[in-house]
Amino acid sequence: MAYETLIVDIKDHIALIRLNRPDALNALNSTMMAELAKALTEADRNEKVRAIVLTGSDKAFAAGADIKEMSDKGFVDMFEADFFTPETEAMLRVRKPIIAAVSGYALGGGCELAMICDFIIASDTAKFGQPEINLGVVAGIGGTQRLTRFVGKSKAMDMHLTGRFMDAEEAERSGLVSRVVPVKKLLDTAMEAADKIAEKSQVTVKVVKEAVNRSYETTLREGLLFERRVFHMLFNTEDQKEGMAAFLEKREAQFRDR
Ligand code: CO8
What we know:
Helices cover about 45% and strands about 15% of the residues. By secondary structure, it is of the alpha/beta class. It folds into two domains: about 5-200, 2-enoyl-CoA Hydratase, Chain A, domain 1 (Alpha-Beta Complex), CATH 3.90.226.10; about 200-250, Lyase 2-enoyl-coa Hydratase, Chain  A, domain 2 (Orthogonal Bundle). Strand 1 and strand 2 form a beta hairpin. The radius of gyration is 19 Å and the shape is globular. Bound molecules: octanoyl-coenzyme A. Octanoyl-coenzyme A (CO8) binds near residues 27, 105 and 109.
């Protein structure tokens, strides 16, 4: 289906979703957020798709929520509309892995959107920031919570209070991104990572995503119990039998997602 603010391409088993508002550095407006929630939900439902890559342009992943759309609103407008909440919740319900391929600016809502994804691969030109303080506001779709968990309190406070940007090297050092590659290799690297995931048992992939996400939402003891139970549970799958047999027989596993 055609979108106004996105370009969606299903290549082999990968859904590639590109944010596409170049004139506004991919600022996230209501249309884009609604379309993104729809595209991600559809990719999640599409049996052909085994992993999702979300990207922007070389210059900007997304330079934040659309300031023009928000600037005139009052408290009651924002409160009643609850902007972006249903959309981000829909994104969090996606069970297939979402890789953010970030080049250029990932600011405010753009940084938050990247953090909603399962992991971030950045180009060496990426710049992350939560500059909402310069607009007299605060992050609104998870930045104060997720950035703090990902990079620690000191760096998160620094980013949110000063509004400074973090370059790719610092983002990798701090654990915000999983790898940094030259900008020309960004999309290929993200697609290769998605391809690797697509080769695995999709039952196991979904369990891994759930288990890692648990670590942000529960105590260590509960998280360890969850991990142990899903580990046990996977011994009831054909793919566990196949994966272990393939290792012992020194061959590639042929997973059937069962
Ligand atoms: N919103 C709307 N338009 C934007 C945005 C934005 N966030 N960012 C850039 N643009 C537009 C500019 O207005 C400009 O448009 P025009 O050509 O019509 O004037 C065009 O994109 C190009 O931008 P610049 O000319 O500014 O490009 P530069 O290369 O000089 O600067 C920057 C690039 C540094 C990225 C600069 O554009 C900038 O600082 N942008 C704003 C960054 C920002 O403050 N982001 C945070 C926004 S608030 C937010 O994200 C809150 C999230 C929580 C939402 C919760 C909803 C309820």
